[in-house]
Amino acid sequence: MPLWSILVPLFAALILAASGLIGMLPGFAALAFAALVSSVLAAVHHAETVAHKLGEPLGTLVLALAVTAIEVALIIAIMLAGGDGAERVPRDTIFSAVMIISTGVVGLCLLIGGMRHREQSFRVEGACAGISALFALSVLSLVLPTFTTSSASGTYTNSQLAFAAVASLALWGVFVFIQTVRHRDYFLPREDVSNEEVHAEPPTSAQAWAALALLFVALVAVVGLAKMLSPTIERGVAAIGAPKSVIGVVIALLVLLPETWAAIRAARANRIQTSLNLAIGSALASIGLTIPAVVGVAVVLDLPLRLGLEGKDLVFLGLAFGVSTLTMSSGRTNVMQGAIHLVIFAAFLFMSVVP
Question: What CATH class is the domain 3-353?
Fold first, then answer.
């Protein structure tokens, strides 16, 4: 285990503790941001160690669950803090996570993998199952609330929220079951004897447990530092005159940094199946686990919750799923597909700042 991967999480935890005691002093934000990015890299390293020990597809599930835990913690913290627009933060963050993963992360992986290896292959069965589930979850959680009539536009009644939460959790659970038990072979990478990373000796149990502990420390640091930096982010968004929904985009970008880096590394190593497992699994978890947690907090504490997307966001969601369906149906990837996904991602970012 490299020394930096041990020192970085401990250093980030120290910065987090110091910022909690003395506050985010001028100039301290830059140090906190550096610690956050370093923690992301350390988290990826330790998650990959655990993943190598567990094997596919259980390994990618570890990082997806860890990233989702960060997302849920940040969303609930902002909801409990209240303030103007807090009821829309879950919607904006979840929608941003889906767009970032399905267009940005997937696009980068396809482009980098295509540039380095010309063409890469993956298993259509697993990818299409994941995209179908993600499409259904997105419509149930983010689209239908805009068109229901039992409550104000964009909202669900408590009974509708409960149904959406149970349906989301159930569909995510079924996907994990087929991914890890019933149809595990759908998500296994195709054998590549030239790939040394795939066939390298797995870590010992002691190394895997140590990596898991350091992964936990790194992820706690990421959550805490991102929360500490959120007021700075809000001031920055206000300074450039961007809408408050950009806060959800920034939160999602920060949360997804570990998974993005891990997916890109896998694509560069000619393991596009692992990249897609990470991307699709994380997107599913961001809805399937986040919606039940957010709904539970909102119902118990009687907090307002606005989930329904409007206008251009509905168009972007439909465009992302249409293109993703075509990409995942071929079983092979190239640079052109990556470029298409990245153009949609760039348009999403631009239209978020300039609506």
Answer: mainly alpha
